[in-house]
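Predict structure. Input: Endonuclease III, 228 residues.
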Amino acid sequence: MGTPLESREDQVAEVLDRLSEEYPDSSISLRYSNRLELLIAVILSAQCTDERVNAVCADLFEKYEDAADYAEADQEELAEDISSITYYNNKASYIRSACRDIIEEHDGEVPDTMSELTELAGVGRKTANVVLQHGHDVVEGIVVDTHVQRISRRLGITEEETPERIEEDLMEIVPRGRWQAFTHLFIDHGRARCTARNPDCSDCVLEDVCPSSKLDSEVDLASGEVWS
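Output follows.
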């Protein structure tokens, strides 16, 4: 199997250096033009591809221009507007509720603190981290999506299992200045090589430092299951 570096800090540094070379233009893939659009897009992106979200938001952002438009929208109409998104009924409800709170409690502006953001409907720590980083230039944590969760475990960087515990663990070993890049690089690598079901280990820039490599390891450390 691949052999990770001796310390987790060294493993992180090596992985980030290699991925930075592999994906030099790594960045957020959601399209938006202001903080509210970013918030809406991230809410919609839960368990849905960014590609699908971008396609839906292209029309959505033309129809709804501000928080009041969403807050006053008919539930069924808004749900229909996003009906190709997973859990569209719930997300329509979240968006309407969040925008009402933005108007009533934040003067129509998307808040800029973790505590205020996570009080909005449909906004957990992951969503709040994205909005803070890309909407307010505030890097308060590491965004742990499914790619970050999967790959950080496969690489032996963490043994934690939940996004919250993984984020806490990563924040202790990833240099603060690389928190934002960490997420984008892992997402790009998860899409291009280290996919959930059939990772392309033979053409992976991290294969020699990955203890989950399918080339000579029997177990996927992300799931704890034997490779099929």
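The chain has two domains: 8-26+143-226, 35-135.
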